[in-house]
Amino acid sequence: MSVDYELRGHVAVITINRPGARNAVNTEVAQGIEAAIDRLEEEDEAWVGVLTGAQTEKGWIFCAGADLKQMSVDPGGMATSRGGFGGLVQRDRTKPLIAAVDGPALAGGTELVLACDMVVASETAVFGVPEVKRNLVAAAGGLFRLPRKIPRNIAMELALTGRLDFPAERAYHFGLVNRLCAEGTALATALELADEICAAAPLAVRESRRIVIEATDQPDEVGWKMSGEGIMKMFPTEDFTEGLTAFVEKRPPVWKGR
Predict the structure, then answer these.
(1) Which of 52, 67, 202, 206 qualifies as a cystine partner to 47, CB 3.0-4.6 A?
(2) What integer pLDDT is reported at residue 195 of this predicted model?
């Protein structure tokens, strides 16, 4: 299998496992990521996902992007009908997904990162959208998601030059990366972040994620409406009662996700 899925407590670890090809996305990887997201969404015990890349013989790498050998004969083979490129970039999801980036995440690899909700990166991680160097266009979300995450002029420079030297430290400075860590510890650090999220009520986490995504660029009245509707959804749940009861009893809540 080119993509591994492992449930660790309430955290689903999804690993692109194609180290001989620098974890590049081919048909099998795209289908594997889509299947892993299906499991994350369907399994009641899975509350948060972490996407990472397997270590190679030459060192750490998250994903080198699309498999250009396959692209030369099958340009659409790295996408799925529901998820788009890598089975992920256009996929509708409800649960948080964290990118754990050790080493390069380039071209489509950067676009997979941008499709995640949060990013943990090691100091050796590097990002870039070099498609213009191959007479290609970054068509998996990079050209509009990157300028939403970092200053527009910086994103423009990366897109038009195809530079491959946008390091994790600079990405952290601009807010693309949530947490910066030592080489080889991106997954462990992402799991720590995932555990923090899992300490919160899963239904409220999913609803909060949805509102942040859908309301951020909308007028305030839309945000007020969505926030009000969101909290109303929580009132009839078991976890709403549990949260208040645990507070009164001065104990950690035991969430059930219902």
Answers:
(1) 202
(2) 97
CB neighbour list of residue 17: distance below 8 Å, 6 or more residues apart: 1, 2, 3, 4, 23, 54
Secondary structure class of 170 (helix, strand, coil): helix
> Two tokens at 73?
């004969």
Separation of alpha carbons 132 and 160, rounded Å: 7
Long-range contacts of the stretch 188-194 (C-beta < 8 A, 24+): 189/100, 189/120, 190/50, 190/52, 190/98, 190/99, 190/100, 190/120, 191/8, 191/11, 191/13, 191/50, 191/100, 193/98, 193/118, 193/120, 194/11, 194/48, 194/50, 194/96, 194/98
Where in the sequence numbering do the catalytic residues fall? 111, 131
What the block records as the tokens of 101 is 């980036």
Amino acid letter, 103: G
pLDDT given for residue 221 in this prediction: 94
pLDDT score of 74: 79
Extract the residue ranges of the chain whose pLDDT is less than 50.
Answer: none
pLDDT value at position 161?
96
Contacts of 48 (CB under 8 A, 6+ apart): 10, 11, 12, 95, 96, 97, 98, 194, 197, 198
Q: Which residues contact 87 (CB under 8 A, 6 or more apart)?
A: 29, 30, 31, 32, 33, 34, 35, 37, 79, 80
Q: What is the pLDDT of residue 57?
A: 82
- Distance linking the first and last C-alpha atoms of the chain: 33
The pLDDT, as a whole number, for residue 187 is 98
Please, which residues have CB within 8 angstroms of residue 180's CB and are 6 or more apart in sequence? 121, 122, 123, 168, 169, 172
